[in-house]
Amino acid sequence: MIADSSAWLLLCRTVRFGDTDAAGVMHFHQLLRWCHEAYEESLERFGLAAGDVFPRPGERPAVALPIVHCSADFLAPLACGDPLAIQLDPRRLDPGSFEVHYGFRLGDKQVARGLTRHLAISADTRQRCPLPAAIQRWLEASSLGQGVQPL
Question: Which residues are catalytic?
Answer without folding.
Answer: 21
